[in-house]
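Hi all, a correction to my earlier message: I attached the wrong file for Cadherin-12. Here's the right sequence:
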Amino acid sequence: QLHSDLDKGVGSVKYTLSGDGAGTVFTIDETTGDIHAIRSLDREEKPFYTLRAQAVDVDTKKPLEPESEFIIKVQDINDNEPKFLDGPYVASVPEMSPVGAYVLQVKATDADDPTYGNSARVVYSILQGQPYFSIDPKTGVIRTALPNMDREVKEQYQVLIQAKDMGGQLGGLAGTTTVNITLTDVNDNPPRFPKSIFHLKVPETSHVGSAIGRIRAVDPDFGKNAEIEYNIVPGDGGNLFDITTDEYTQEGVIKLKKPLDFETKKAYTFKVEASNLHLDHRFHSVGPFKDTATVKINVLDMDEPPVFSKPMYTMEVYEDTPVGTIIGAVTAQDLDAGSSSVRYFMDWKNDVDSYFTIDATEGTIATNELLDRESTAQYNFSIIASKVSNPLLTSKVNVIINVLDVNEFPPEISVPYETSVCENAKPGQVIQTITAADKDLSPAGQRFSFKLSSEASNKPNFTVHDYRNNTAGIETRRNGYSRRQQELYFLPIVIEDSSYPVQSSTNTLTIRVCRCDSDGTIQSCNVEAIFLPVGLSTGALIAILLCIVILLVIVVLYVALRRQKKKDTLMTSKEDIRDNVIHYDDEGGGEEDTQAFDIGALRNPKVIEDNKIRRDIKPDTLRFTRHRPPAEDNTDIRDFINQRLQENDVDPSAPPYDSLATYAYEGNGSVAESLSSIDSLTTEADQDYDYLSDWGPRFKILADMFGEESYNPDKVT
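and the right structure:
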């Protein structure tokens, strides 16, 4: 309850409340000042509330006292049980651990107020899992409660842990969790053989390295503590066998180290020891962690194939050995009790085997064809031996025959040489070093000798210097060589080997004379270079030739352009000579004055009406549109003049002044007939204008114009 000293109990004071939970969790009586909770409170949700209260005058609404702040604390009750937030738990502890060995610590959490009463004081206990484990009631540490717990007896344990508040008193709340505890393995058990003697039967034909039997020791431990190592105890027969461990089954696998022979020994006895690889020193007192068993092996008699006296045979034969010569023999025996005869034959795989034959009874090998070491230097084939009593039992052996060389090929120059000599060479200068090669198999210490042939030794050009190491040098014997006199020299060289019988060959070395500079560097070996001027390089000659070609191209283009221009001028002159209109601006000098007026206009009855040019004013342009006259009947020139006159009379663009035009009209029935080509059915090429010169002085100009050059239609393109 809130109360103000100014409150006289007459209802003049009003109380207000604000802050955390005001109006939602707490409410206040405005008249009495009583504070009430209007819903349930949870300390774990909010442990306290901060509120502010004030007394206000009812009439004036003004505060009677300053605002005061107070805190409401929520008092805790035991309404939350302990909880294992990390449960359920999984733990492990080694087997055979002593009492009190640490296993795991569990922890329960109580949401109640630990500072108020015993609501949050937790006590731990075991509900299930005794007497194997114990727990500290305060700390929750779980420990072993029994000694020597054996994993091989029981491996998994499930322990039920309880946590109770109120210090474990009656009425406290409790929570539980499960702890799964596993006993981990330790090497506390030695391996043991289930029996002391193992009997094995092995055929004498078993292959070396093959597994002939298995034995096993039992170890109840797990994982690496159960890994077993097997060893053969040195003694009778142990050196013929070996034993290894199968890592998956932990069995001892007995393998054969050497071949068995029933006729030599029929049984073997030895001991095998099994021991752990990983020992635990804490259990040494238990005893040795190993066990021993006896293995007896009985060898079974088998019908075996023949056995060769050697694992491989190597023979040698000269390549010139005659066919049928015996070069060696192979031997095989039947080692069984009832010895049987042996037959030999070749293992035919390819044509190489046909070079040799074998005697089926004696096993001798002879040549069947002539051998050539240069073709095949070594033969490798197989011989098969079988028992006569049981042909299915066979054995095989490899035979290697090396073909020995016979000196039958002469030595030759190893590679083709391109030898050259400078024109300015000095005597004694080495121009080439040569080597030789022999197709025969050269024995150790074989040497080749070089010399000139007898016919070349007398010539004073070149000589051969033998270096005594299977090489020789070609040296010059004179001062200077001339390509003009001789460009190529052919030098015969005799090469001999040192084998028996001695083989030799004559090899011709071609020497080319070349032009060199002062340092001996070859500049040119071509024949054409002999006639070139001294001091002029190939690059300069190419540049000169290129310039000449460019000049020729320019000249050809210039001539072609001139010819084309001349043709164009001729065509223009031929086509426009009759239709050219000559304009003038004077009255002229009469009918013989053709410079002032062009009579060509008289020949064209259809003058373009749009092209009206004043004849008394010199026009700016001299171009007129040319029309082809229509093919129509000849009309009188007078009709044409009258028509043009009428057109000019009605033409508003005609000059307002008089213009004088003189027409040289002959009239109808001219002796020379019409000069117009309108009705001419012949081409210009068919016209002959020589008759114009016979018409008198009036047609002199026309005769000169049409006869000044002959018309050639073939030039028109």
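Sorry for the mix-up. The longest helix spans residues 538-576.
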